Amino acid sequence: MAGEDSLNATLLPLQEPIQETPNNNSITIFSILNLQNFYIILGPLLSIIICLLVKLDAPTTSTKMLGVIAWVFTWWITNAVPLPVTSMCPLFLFPLFGIASADTVAHSYMDDVITLVLGSFILALAVERYNVHRRLALNVTLVFCGDPLNPSMLLLGLCATTFFVSMWLHNVATAVMMMPVATGILHRLPPAEEQPELMNKFSRAVILTVVYATPIGGISTLTGTGVNLIIIGMWKSLAPEAKPISFNSWFFFGFPVAVLLLLCFWCILCLIYVRKGSSRALSDYLDRALLKRDLEALGPMSFAEKMVLCVFGLLIVLWMTRRISDDLPGWGVLFHGLVGDGSISVLAAVLLFIIPNMKQNGEKLMDWNECKKLPWNLILLLGAGFALADGVQSSGLADVMSKALEFLKDVPYLAIVPAVSLLCSIITEFITSNDATATLLVPLLYHIAINMHVHPLLLMIPGGIATEFAFWLPTSTPSNVVGFATGHIEIKDMLKVGVPLKVAGVSVLALLMPTLGSIVYGTNDGTQ
C-alpha cells in the first residue's frame, strides 16, 4: 500500500545524488501572480486601508473592528484560504488589533452552542455507522409507496424521510446519507437515455426531493443546520440579558414553518414532474416487493441499532422537556438552570462510548477513530461568528451601525420582513456557505431591528432562516452539489423548482413570523 511504502521510506534518501534544479524564476513569478494570491493579499490590504483612512465617530477600536471584518469576510467570500482556516483568524487578529484579549476571544470558540454541535454530530456518526438511516428510509418509503404504485405518494414518502433525518443531522450529512436511497430507486429504472419522458421526469423529481427536502427539514430543529445555531448563538451574544432561544422554543416555530414549506415543495414538484400515466410507466420497475427485498437484506435490527435509537430518543426527550414553558419549567429547574442543551448533547455522546455494541468483546457503540469525521470546519466557523459578534459589540461598532440604519425605523414592518427574507435568500445563492452568509447578515439584522424599535428576533429569525433558501444554483450550498453530482438533474431543473420554492419560503416567513413567532418568542413584550 502507498501509505505503508511512505512509512518505510527514508525521509532523506542520501544514497541518491542531489541534483541542482533548473532556474525557473519566470515560472515562479507567474505562479505567484494568480487570482488566489490576489485574494489572499486583498483581505489584509482592505483592513489596512480601512484602519488608515476610515474615520468613525466612535472609539478607534470600532475602526479596527471594521478592518478585521473586512479581512475575514473577504477571505470567506473569495475562499482565499480554506474556510476553517479563515475562521481561526479572529484568534490572533483581535489581540493584535487591540480589540479583545486572547482569552476573551478564545471563549467564543467553545460555549454551550459549540458543545451542542459536537454532541449532535457524534450521534449522527453513530447513526451513519450502523445504517439506521437506511433502515428508516426503506420503512417509510415502503409505507408511502402504495399498491398500486402512486408516484406522488412515493415522492411524499421520500420527502418525509429526508425531512425527518435532516431534522437531527446536518444538511450535508443528510444529503450524503439520503442520496444513495434516491439513486437506489433510480437504479431499478432503465438508463436515463432509454427512459420515456414520463419516467425521466420522475427520475429528476426523485433527486430534487432529496436536494430540497434536506434544507427544509433542517429548519425544524435547533441542531438541523449550522444557520440555526448561528442565530441562537448571535442572539445570546448580542443580547445576553434577553431570554435565550431553547431547543423547545425553536421547534415550536421552526417545525410549522418547515412543514408548511415542505408541503409547498411537494405540490410544486408534483405539478412540474408528475404527469398522468406516470404510475403505469413506473409500475413494472417500482413496487412494494422490491422495497421489501431491500429491507430484508438488512436483516433484523441489531442490538447496536436499537441502542443508538434509544440514545437518540433520550436526547430528543431531554431537549424537549428541559424547559417547556414559563408555567411548566421542566426538569432543568432541578439543576437551577445550569444545564444547557449542549450539556445534554454531550451526555448522549458520552453514552455512546460506554454502551457496548455486542458485536465484539469490549467494543462500544462508538470509538474515537469514527470521530475523526467531525465537521471541525463548521465548529470553527461558528466560533468565528460568535467572536465577530462579540467584537462588534465591545468595540463600539454596533453603535455606529445603529446610527447608520436609523432611516429604516420608518419602514413598515409588514414590508421589511419579506424584503429582508428575499434579500438574504438571494445573497446566499452567491456565497457557497449558508453559515458564512448567516454570520454576515444576522448581526446586521439585529441592529436594523433595534433602530426600527421592534424585537430583534422578528428580523433575525426570518432573515437567518432565509439564508437556507439556496435553491437556484448547484454551487449555492454543498447539499445542492451532492444532488447535481448524480447527473440526473440540470440547472434548469433547479430553477424550475427553486424559483417558486423561494417565493413560497419568503411568503411563509412573512406570514408566520409576525403571528406564530410573536407568540413563541414573546416579541410583543418589547424590543428585547
Automatic annotation (TrEMBL):
<feature type="transmembrane region" description="Helical">
    <location>
        <begin position="503"/>
        <end position="522"/>
    </location>
</feature>
<feature type="transmembrane region" description="Helical">
    <location>
        <begin position="333"/>
        <end position="355"/>
    </location>
</feature>
<dbReference type="GO" id="GO:0005886">
    <property type="term" value="C:plasma membrane"/>
</dbReference>
<keyword id="KW-0472">Membrane</keyword>
<dbReference type="GO" id="GO:0015140">
    <property type="term" value="F:malate transmembrane transporter activity"/>
</dbReference>
<feature type="transmembrane region" description="Helical">
    <location>
        <begin position="295"/>
        <end position="321"/>
    </location>
</feature>
<feature type="transmembrane region" description="Helical">
    <location>
        <begin position="168"/>
        <end position="186"/>
    </location>
</feature>
<feature type="transmembrane region" description="Helical">
    <location>
        <begin position="38"/>
        <end position="56"/>
    </location>
</feature>
<dbReference type="GO" id="GO:0022857">
    <property type="term" value="F:transmembrane transporter activity"/>
</dbReference>
<feature type="transmembrane region" description="Helical">
    <location>
        <begin position="444"/>
        <end position="465"/>
    </location>
</feature>
<feature type="transmembrane region" description="Helical">
    <location>
        <begin position="206"/>
        <end position="231"/>
    </location>
</feature>
<keyword id="KW-1133">Transmembrane helix</keyword>
<feature type="transmembrane region" description="Helical">
    <location>
        <begin position="109"/>
        <end position="127"/>
    </location>
</feature>
<feature type="transmembrane region" description="Helical">
    <location>
        <begin position="376"/>
        <end position="393"/>
    </location>
</feature>
<feature type="transmembrane region" description="Helical">
    <location>
        <begin position="136"/>
        <end position="156"/>
    </location>
</feature>
<feature type="transmembrane region" description="Helical">
    <location>
        <begin position="413"/>
        <end position="432"/>
    </location>
</feature>
<dbReference type="GO" id="GO:0055085">
    <property type="term" value="P:transmembrane transport"/>
</dbReference>
<feature type="transmembrane region" description="Helical">
    <location>
        <begin position="68"/>
        <end position="97"/>
    </location>
</feature>
<keyword id="KW-0812">Transmembrane</keyword>
<dbReference type="InterPro" id="IPR001898">
    <property type="entry name" value="SLC13A/DASS"/>
</dbReference>
<protein>
    <submittedName>
        <fullName>Putative sodium/sulfate symporter</fullName>
    </submittedName>
</protein>
<dbReference type="Pfam" id="PF00939">
    <property type="entry name" value="Na_sulph_symp"/>
</dbReference>
<feature type="transmembrane region" description="Helical">
    <location>
        <begin position="251"/>
        <end position="274"/>
    </location>
</feature>
